[in-house]
## 1
Amino acid sequence: MAIDKAQREQILESVDRLVRDKIAPRAAEIDARDEFPRDLYKAAAELGLFGLWIPEEYGGIGPDMVTPLLISERIARVSASFSLSFSNCGDACTPIVIGGSEALKRRFLPGIAAGEIIPAFCLSEPGGGSDAAAITTRAVRDGDHYVINGRKMWITNGSIAGVYTIFAKTDPDAGHKGVSAFVVPRDTPGLVIGRDETLIGLHGSPTTELTFENLRVPVANRLGEEGEAFKIAMETLDEARLNCSAMALGAATSAVEQSIAYAKERVQFGKPIIEHQGLQFLVAEMATGLTAARALWKESIRKLERGRTREASVHAGMAKLIATDVAMRVTTDAVQVFGANGLSRNYPVERLMRDVKAFQIFDGTNQIQKMVIGRYCQKNGLPLEEGIDL
Ligand SMILES: Cc1cc2nc3c(=O)[nH]c(=O)nc-3n(C[C@H](O)[C@H](O)[C@H](O)COP(=O)(O)OP(=O)(O)OC[C@H]3O[C@@H](n4cnc5c(N)ncnc54)[C@H](O)[C@@H]3O)c2cc1C
């Protein structure tokens, strides 16, 4: 059962306290040390936040689509990196919620909801990024098991996860219909955890390479039927795109707010720089872009809440495209507003700019969003509803 409005308000109030008292004071340090903040993950778990994606019968308080998006947005205002640490749990456990057998759900979901088991979503590979159907990791049936061999790249929380949802080809000739997914605990022999990447931003959120060397996984750990996993991955990605938008909008909001405050304080040519029209126009464009992106994001959430239609999925892609492009632009503009101070680690806007770049790349790059939106328009015209939604 979805949580009601009053419960949502209560949760968001507790998140605001967590953000103010625990995450904000640590954000710069997490970035500088590039270390996953286990204490914050535990603090989020104590509020029950990882249970939001998980039904009550498996230890959660959900599933609820909207509340996690609002939480991601709030956390990203102070730490985009920890916002990803929080929300990646949703991306990674949703395939189990959608496609897991009763036994798999009972085995893994309560630990994930309690924050004791961190899940990871393992789709991308060195040769299969945007073209996810081109993955080459292979799962070959051997009696009651599959034997998995291959390599994954860019896996969020790959080095710290307790359970991995691994996408692999069970039929290499069947394109996306040959993709199956498996739930694999960390201690399974043959699961080799590689190094974490050093990225320009999102420090503190590990992004890891994984190798599978004759990894033996029971057939019972497969999600859904053989060949059904691509659908599970795409369904998961609709919400992930709205979440990516949430993180981008949170960071962008912070960038615009900080820019306004700084421009009111900083004096050049005898007056606050916000009183110079050239800079005031820049702030106006930042605020307008952000407001437009936020409106589309909310509309896309409403559409997906009403039903998982093709149109709702295209809208989620549109929201992701606009929100992340706006976030990249306004965080870069924020650095401009701050002048040389904007480049300094003594001010948080350079971190915002470094962090949001990844949002244009993961959960489907913005070129891939355009490809999907364009193909939809070619076939169906504009993805608008009849009448005006007011
Ligand atoms: C911080 C971070 C965390 C991530 N976490 C995860 C995770 O947890 N799990 C996971 O599975 N993956 C994860 N990823 C991987 C991410 O999903 C991929 O990086 C993404 O799908 C793009 O793939 P790629 O990097 O291989 O780029 P490529 O696919 O090689 O694309 C390179 C460029 O070519 C463009 N391009 C490609 N094809 C087309 C086309 N047909 N038309 C026009 N342009 C095109 C792209 O838009 C891009 O600009 C993560 C990535 C990052 C950066």
## 2
Amino acid sequence: MKINIEQISEKPIEFSGEEKIENFPALLELNNSREPLFKGPLRFKVKLERESGRIRMSGEVSVVSAFFCSRCLSEFETKIFSVFTIYYTKEICGEINEETEIELDGHDLVSATYKGDEIDFGHELEEQVIMEIPVKPLCSESCKGLCPGCGEDMNHSVCFCTKAPVNMKFSALKDFKINR
Ligand SMILES: [Zn+2]
Ligand SMILES: [Zn+2]
């Protein structure tokens, strides 16, 4: 996923396409560790342009993935999606230009470097995907989870723990006698 920087001018150029997960070492490693499971391919759309001495890459990346819900433990599919802007500066003699470390305008912008005449943006695409992996995946915001008493999935069934609720208020009233 390389592009020669001579192709990039102040007039933006766009690329889009899809790439197999196998072409992203970090994503493949995550896939091999079972969770999450990228169902691939990784779809991307990027726009590259020169902007005040840097190369600006903006775009979006998505990949269909499977997770285990952190509440009910069931497996579900969702799409990981990220919209990003990355500023590239040329790496000179292995040194990272100090300027690239500056936060550009208070937004969550990413800076990266390239060597020689080529930008390999594959690495940044996989970084973007990794950043969007939820820490506590949820099959749904309203997932009821498992019953702490019996372990039943509360989304699909009613367990015995909830079938016989003890109505404390009512049983207290039953024995209540009014003194006249
Ligand atoms: Zn769930
Ligand atoms: Zn229960």
